[in-house]
Amino acid sequence: MKRRIIVVLIIVVLIALVVMFSGCLEEGTQSQVQNSDEDENAIVYNSDVEFQEDFRLREGKFCFSRLSPGDTAKVYDPISYLKYVPEDDKTNVQFSSYNANEKYEYVYALFKGDLTDELAVGDKVIITRHIILDNGHEIPDPNDYILLRICFL
Question: Which of 19, 108, 118, 130 could form a disulfide with 92 if both were Cys (CB 3.0 to 4.6 A apart)?
Answer without folding.
Answer: 108
